[in-house]
Amino acid sequence: MPQHLSIFVENKPGKLERITAVLAEAGINIRAVSMADAGEFGVVRILPDDPDKGLAALKAAHFTVTKRKVLIALIGDKPGALHELLVQVAEAKANVQDCYGFVTEEGKRAAIVIEVEKFPEAEESLRARGVRLMADSGIHSL
Amino acid sequence: MFWDKEFETMDEGALRALQLERLRWTIGQADRSPMYRNRFARDGVPKIKTMDDVRRLPFTTKQDLRDAFPYGLLAVPLEEVVRLHSSSGTTGNPTVIYHTKADIDGWGDLMARCLYMSGMRKNDVFQNMMGYGLFTGGLGFHYGAEKLGALTIPIGPGNSKRQIWFMQQFKTTVIHILPSYALRLSMFFEEMGLDPRKDLSLRIAYVGSEPHTEETRRRIEEIWGIKAYNSYGLSEICGPSVAFECPSQTGMHLWEDRFLMEIVDPKTGDPLPDGEEGELVLTTLQRAATPLIRYRTRDLTRILPGPCPCGRTSRRLDRIKGRSDDMLIINGVNVFPLQVEKALVKIPSLGSNYVIELRTENFMDRMHVNVELGRDAFQGTLPELERLQARVTEELKAEIGFTPVVKLVEAGSLPVPEGKAIRVVDQRDKQ
Lengths: 142, 431
Prior knowledge:
- Helix content of chain A is about 30%, strand content about 40%.
- Chain A is an alpha+beta fold.
- Chain A is globular and about 40 Å long.
- Chain A starts with a strand and ends in a 9-residue tail after the last strand.
C-alpha cells in the first residue's frame, strides 16, 4: 500500500522550505503536498516517490515525522470525476481523515490521496465498487 | 554504610551542643571580617548562651554579600586563602566566597560523605558532567570523588556524543549531570542505536543545580535504568554537599554538624517549626575564610519531621519548591515554574524541554507555555495534536489554577543553553 509522510511543523516562516530542502538534498521527488494547521502548529503531508528514504532523511534532520498508509485513487481529469469517487467512498462507509489530489496527466488522469480510518475494509470495499486504486509500486511510475 | 559515623549518627543532644560551640566560634571568626566587624561594633557582639539565642542574630542577605565585594567578608589574612568561588554577577556585583586550605579540605570531606552515603565507592568511575570554574558544582563534586578515591573524569558539560562515548569506553558507573541535560542526552540513545541499560555500566546519577520535580527524577531513573539522587547546595554556603539524599530517597540530610538550619517566614523572618514551609536560612559552622551568619537563601522548602530509616540524625530537607525570587505573580496568582514542570511531566508524549513566556495582552498578564512534542510520540494526525494541546492545557490549569496558552513546538527547537535551562521569559510591560 502507498505511504505518505506526515510532518509536525510550527507555523513559522521558512518551515516548509526547510522540509523541501532536506528532500531535495536526498534526491526525493515530491508528487504532492498538503497542509493542515490548527493555528500555531500544523501537519504537512508529503507524497514522495520513496517514503522510506524520505522518512530517513527527515528524521536525520531532526524533524518530527512519521509514515502513514494511504489509498491513491486514479480518476479521470474531468468535471464530476472527484464527485463520483467521493460518492463511492461514502457508499463504502469509509471515514476520510485526509484528502488531497494532483493531476498526473493533464486532461486525462488525476490521483486522489485518501487517508481513511479502517484501511483493509475501505480498500476492499472501494475495489469492489470498481474504483481504481494504485498499487504500492505505482507511485514511482506516475 | 557511613563515611563519618560519629557525626552522621550523633544524637540530638550532642549535635546541639556541638552546634552551639561551633556557632560561637563562627561569630568570633566573623568578627575578623570588615563587614561583620562593623556590624558588631555598631550593634554589639551577639551573646549566645543557648540555641534559642540564634533568632536574635541579624540576617545576612545576598545584598550584604554584594555590598561587601570584593574583600569585605574575608575573615582571614589573604595569605591563608587558596581559592574563591563567585556568582556570575549579571545583576550587580558578584557574590564572592573565599576558602582556606582547611575550608577546601572540609568541603571535600563533606562531599565524600554525601557520595559515600548514596553508594559511590573507590572502584567507581565517575564522569563529572558539570561545569568547572567559578561555579561550585563541578569542582565541589570533583574534590569529593577524589577524596573518596573514585576515578574522576573532569569532562565538564556539553558535546553529547563524546559524553556517551566516554561512558562506553571508560565503563562509567556514576555521573553528575543537570536534570534537564539528563533528559536531553537520552534523546541521542535512539540515534546512536544504544540501550543505556545494556550498553552502559551506569548505576548512579547525581542530578542537581536545577530545581526539578520528583516526577522528573523518576523519569530520568526510568529512561537511564539507574538511581538518581537529588542534592542541595549553593555557592554562598560552599556549594554541593550542604544537603544530600541517602538511599531511602526521602528528603536530603542537611549536615547539622557543619551548618545551622532554620526555616523562617519569608515576609516576617520569624522562625517556623519543622514541617512548615518557608525560607531556608543557613549559618556556616566550620568555615574560616568566609563565615556567614543566618544567610537568607531565598529557597523555599521545609524540614521533614521525624527520623530517617537510614539512621543518620541530621534532619532532612524537602525538595526545594522554588526560589522566592523565582515566584511568578500572574494576575495576582502565585506560580512557581516547577508547578508547570510537574504538570508537563505527567504527559508521556511530550519532550523534556519547555519555556514559559509571560506577556501583557489587553492589559492583562498572559502565560504562554511552549512545550516540545516528543519525537517518537507523533502518530501523524492533526486531531491527535489538538487533543494533546487540550490535555496539556487541562493539566496545567489543574496545577496552577488558571488557563495558560499552550503551544506545541518541534522537538529540539527550544533553545538549549550549556548551563542551567532557561525556563521563564518575562516580556510583560514594565510599568
